[in-house]
Amino acid sequence: MKAGAVKNRDDLLVLAAGRLPQGRYGGSLAGLGAVALGRAAVEELLRDGALPRPGSALWGMARSHTQGMNPARTLALEAGLPPETTAFTVNMACGSSLQALIVACQRLRDGAEGAILAGGSEAMSDTPHLVPGLRWGFRIGHRQAPDVMHQDGLLCPVTGLLMGETVERLAAKRGIARTEADAWAAESHRRAAAADFRAEHLPHPQLDRDECIREGVREESLAALPPVFAPGGQITAGNASALADGAACLLVARREQAGDARPLARILGWVEAGVDPLDMGEAPVPAVRRLLADHGLRVADIDLWELNEAFSAQLLVCQRQLTLPPERLNVTGGGVALGHPIGASGARIAVTLIHQLRTRGGGLGVATLGIGGGLGLAVLFEVV
């Protein structure tokens, strides 16, 4: 259903939205760091002289070790924004950059004087290992070197389980079969391989395509992969999201602040939700239900859905409970094929959603994701 909108000076508008092509783990973007990836995205996004300059930058980054204090401020200044541009960094795991967008909208609604840059970046290839206790010295014996990505990203400190282990439990609880997860993973690669991302891609000198996509992925080949988290389990390297490096960002403003810029989309609302951390993967379900109820909408009213594919099984759990039409869901593939650079993924799905709605002539779209610890976010967009 295509929804018309009455223009209002207080409308929350997306004036620009783009992302870097996403690099595979250890691939073309490895070694650059999350700040440099973010800076590259911001420089390209703001190259259009018709855009208002942002008064602040809100930036998601879930693994900021080695990236310096408050990476948002560093990348904003390195991207050429003036010193009076305020900035702060958001860490909400997978939801970091979508939460940055939500906070930007809240600030605009509260009267922020200038447009706001919201986005996120993650360099998963560059996450370091730590040596706890080294500060005070070692005398004798072996020591561990914890992997930041594992300890501070993939492991839930509340449940003591890896994200994949919680999804194994959730898939069993909700009746998702391995064959179904593999089928969705193959479809994600098929859709991504067939997609045209030129409208949303921001150029980068080291990468001109999404590096994680594999053409010709078949369910039969995925079925041969061993489970990762449990004997007889269903999550494999083929039906889980690819580790990736990337950055995505949006420039948002009230209509009165847009100047000569032509808006890409309107942000109509957002919702946060929480569930038991053991059920982390289905947190988008209550978030979406509340979002739709808040706006008097039904699932059938939404033209496109972007639901982050942390795991194929997790996406299917949400899709089934919400009865999302598969043909309207992740129409250009998702995290399984494109990669899931944690701090950038929320902004990435928003960017993709906006450009795909525009390609299809407009309408309503929802971007949603589940977050480690049992949290969910959902944002409603309109393109006219």
Describe what you observe in this structure:
With 384 residues, the chain is α/β, with parallel strands linked by helices. It has a domain at 12-127 and 242-383: Peroxisomal Thiolase, Chain A, domain 1. 31% of the residues lie in helices and 19% in strands. Strands 1, 2, 3, 4, 5, 6, 7, 8, 9 and 10 form a ten-stranded mixed β-sheet that branches.
Radius of gyration: 20 Å
Oligomer: single chain
Structural class by secondary-structure content = alpha/beta
CATH superfamily of the domain at 12-127 and 242-383: Thiolase/Chalcone synthase
The helix content, as a percent range, equals 25-40%
Based on DSSP secondary structure assignment, what is the total number of beta strands? 10
Cα end-to-end separation: 11 Å
> What order do the helices and strands follow?
EEHEHEHEHHHHEEHEHHHEE
User: Which topology of the domain at 12-127 and 242-383 does CATH recognise?
Assistant: Peroxisomal Thiolase, Chain A, domain 1
Estimate what percentage of residues fall within beta strands: 15-25%
Largest sheet: 10 strands, mixed
The poorly predicted ranges are none
Shape: globular
Mean pLDDT: 96
Count of DSSP helices? 11
